[in-house]
Fold these 4 entries.
Entry 1:
Amino acid sequence: MVISFWKTVNGKMQSLEDIEDNCWINMIRPDDVEIRKVTEAAGVDPAVLRAALDEEETSYVDITDDGHTFITLDIPIVDDSSSVMYSTIPLGIVLTKAHIITVCLKENMMLSEFESNPPKGLNTFGRTQFIMALMFRVANRYLQYLRQMNKISDSIEERLYVSQRNKEVIELLGIQKSLVFFSTSLKANQTTLDKILKGKSLKMTEDDMDTLEDVLIEVRQALEMCNIYSDILSGTMDAFASMISNNLNVIMKTLTVITILMTIPTMVFSYYGMNMEPLGLLPFNNVGWFPFMLAVMLVILFGYFFKRYHFTKK
């Protein structure tokens, strides 16, 4: 549970001890006491803030009954505790007449970096401009994580060529799930941004509209990259599945041939081992028939493998 207050003072973002006018209130997994404190100071309905704490909440924009603008965006996160390394969570943004409130379910690098390293010229007094800068940072984070996933998948593929273990396949499956999460969230964010651009939920200047259009371009680019990487990864996993199946067929064929070749000397050994009177009439009964049959079997096996691998390499 983390709650922090930030405000632009003399052109720099500074931390505050308590809520002030024209400040940014950043809430990470707030409890009921913190929600009550913020809602009473900012005049916001507590249900609006709690809605952003629902992990399954989708992206949308709405005007509350008290005239505040409420925007929910899906933001990317890195989750090392799960098999799916990259995922998304909702980020609630409430824009009042005197405050900017962000509510998130989990701590994430994006908001932490936005606090410690805000964009140049960011001002909490320009609330719409602040929102646009935050949206732009979200879109850039998607692109950054998508490039990371592409590099990770390439590394896994190189290891899979050598090892062909289940571990690499599971890791590729986790990357594929992450791409599905990203694709779904990016589509929802794109719809929300289109509504903001075409609607009247935010009062925007020409510069704000230009920034929002840039954000939409970044989101579309991220969505296109996500679809391309997903298609490539699906094709790669299908190819590896075919390779594994083909290798299994080759191994089974080899084992079948060896089994058939070993059946012949086994039959001969079994026949010579029977306690029968006519056995003395069999050839090689009184001489070294065992070394002879063993030599024949080795010659046949050697001839098979020499023919197979020698001519296959050529």
Note: The first strand starts at residue 2 and ends at 9.
Entry 2:
Amino acid sequence: MSKRTLAIFAAVGATTIYGLNHTIAKGVMPNYVQPYGFIMLRVIGAACLFWLISVFGPRERIDKKDYLRMLVCALLGMGFNMLVFFKGLALSTPINSSVLVTTTPIIVLILSAVLIKEKVLPQKMLGIAIGLIGALGLILFGAEIRRDAPNIPLGNFLILMNSVFYGSYLIGAKTLIAKYHPFTFMKWLFTIGIFICLPFGYRELMEIQWGTLPLNTIWSIVFVIVGTTFCTYLFNIFALTQLKASTLSAFVYVQPLFGILFAIITGQDSLTTVKILAACLVLLGVYLASRRPRPNLS
């Protein structure tokens, strides 16, 4: 099996886990663990796991010239990205988050055009506009009264910002992962991430009442640390060694399928007309933005 095929399987595996995460993580927040406290569990747990498996990889030192880029990637991928997503998920609903993360390919396309001067065709511009309308529709009109979703418009906006930060991280990480082994890259990024998230999450981490947590909640926390954090970041960083950032971001399209189905099956969310229409617009937008144009045969 070729490395590219393995990279595709890794990307599918990561996006499947992400799809389940919308509902599993929502079941923990905010009743048992507050969002920023949850982030601390993620970065500490993942850092420990990556340091453990790094003994099986090469011994590498980070060049001084790469310190700043490494810090920026940690801020985008392990700091801002996680903080706004989990806070947004705590304020919104699993289906809303599943739909809004599909804007990531659009964000990557825009950032690629700005940062690396990639040409943006009219078809892609149309896709960006349609996807943005769908995302804004969900943010502005997708609110319903729920005890576990206290501020859906703000939550939806924060989830959208997660796509911005994660898309920026994918572009920034591409250069570094071509130079360093994934174990080296990830152990240092998550170590830096601990210090980035500590001012936000320390108090909430200390407030967790471990003795009163139900067993299913503990298993959910383990899933988020090992699955959603350790495995997905490892899968994605391996996929990034074989695939373009824009190609990898396109796998996010699968997330709503798993996220919405799992949320409905487990009874933690429900479909509404606004959500269906917004999802259709977002998916149409990302399809147009990512589809390769037909070659001109004339």
Note: Residues 131 and 282 are 4 Å apart (CA to CA).
Entry 3:
Amino acid sequence: MYDSLTELIEKIYLGEDATIEFKRALPHRNSLADEVAAFANARGGVILIGVDDNGEIVGVDRQKLDAAEKAVVEICQDSIDPIVLIFTEKLRIDDKNLLKIEVPRSLFVHKTSNGYFIRQGSSKREMPTEQLARLFQTRSQARIIAFDEQFVPNTDKDTLRQDLYQRFITEGATDDEIEDLLLKRHLLVKEGNQNRASVAGVLMCHEKPDDYLYNSFIQAVFYISKEKDADHQLDAQDFKGPLDQQIIHTMRFVKRYNAVAARKDIGRIDYPEYSMRAVFEAIVNAVVHRDYSKTGSKIRLFMFDDRLELYSPGALANTVTVDNLRYSQATRNELLARLLSEITLDDDMGRQVSRRHFLERRGEGVGIILNESEALSGKTPEYEMFDEELRLTIFAAEPPHETEE
């Protein structure tokens, strides 16, 4: 919004309205949170730090500019529920520094500690009960469309990387045909007169999905202990690429710390702590079934001396429960599932997990996780729900009595 300096200067001259707000200096934390939430709950807008209410450009000290930008990002993450993804830009107009905060129209209804606000004209207003109810209804109706098929604000075709989206469209398509094919695959979706990247498009075809969909990555941690203890944390990594690469990198992390004992009977027999096939199914399930609308948490994998824990944000879909997981099949993100089922694994990974594609869609995943893990450790993996977060615990197998490392 207001991408050119000329357009922005004209807006400053015309003064505040429903799409732009001026702030002489960075306001109080709660006040700025209210302004951002009000724009997100309406049609989006721009907040300019360094411009007086009368349109005079007063600027921000260069020494304070970075701190102001950091504070704004923290406010949007910590003081608004759910968080608002903003875009900040440092500008220089009339030899003075400004901080531009672009707030997109949101898919959700946002609340601050002071309540629910919406932008009306050149000011914010707390929403009365009736208006708030209508907004909740409108935005929940939008989510009748699967979340992974909804558009991501401030994206376009160029948000999708060509070498990544080529995997899903007809080979040899002309430039004129590509955009239409991306729309048919729902990697792009129409928003008014614009084509925007879909949630699935960003997750599969952008090099850093977390830039647009907060916490859409996998965090992996290895402890040389049985409890979370920073003093015993040996390795920790965040995997933030396209979802298929997140899966591969997480598998490599687990393989690196999957202790393998061996016993010589007739020939050498290896005894790993975990079935890599079961771990693969667990990671793919977490990626496909997590609720990407929940931005407050990420997929987390913890490896301990005696177990592996995998956390996936979101309640179980539809009528699926912890007790019937083995026998039920319900996909929260159908588009993501289709895309992953089309990507072929490389030969090495394919041999490890006895699969040709990331997803085979036969409903066998949970059974593989339970059966192969229990066969190794003698303990059945456990699924548990904690505050709309699913935790899977896979127990490590004990090494055989006579071992050779």
Note: The radius of gyration is 25 Å.
Entry 4:
Amino acid sequence: MDKELQIELNLTAVDLWRFSMHHANSGMKGIFNLIFTAAAVFLLVVRWNTLVFSQRLLLVVCALLFSVWQPVLLYWKARRQARLPAIAQTIRLTFGREEVTVAQGDQKLAFTWDKIARLDRLKDMAVMYMDRVHAYLIPERVLGEQAESFDQMVQQCLPAERYRRKPW
């Protein structure tokens, strides 16, 4: 694929929230959250008659912690982030055979494919990690018809060990 691929994106609070939820619930954190919530619900159901009010309240709080409160708090945080000028302003990504260019406003940054630490292809977005902290989110809704071309370019330009396609 020699043709450049250009993507313009404006991240929304929902995009940021989905990314935050993925990070908060992936791997061992997600397993812990699930076990913790299931254990709290199990104890509530099985021990309801033997628990005093304060114990019931504590178990309800535990059951709601990762299933309700965490998603709500992450959404509030995402809404605040989406209003920041650095996020609210349109980002233009240009994927070429040799380099990737990111432009936002009057700023422009170009880097070669070997500077990309990892690219995760999730169900509803691609996440291009530059390092452990910095990443570019590319929602599926923005890729649209270019999704297949994007995947082909990434597979051709990025070493296989740095490209992960997650089935969910």
Note: The longest helix spans residues 53-82.
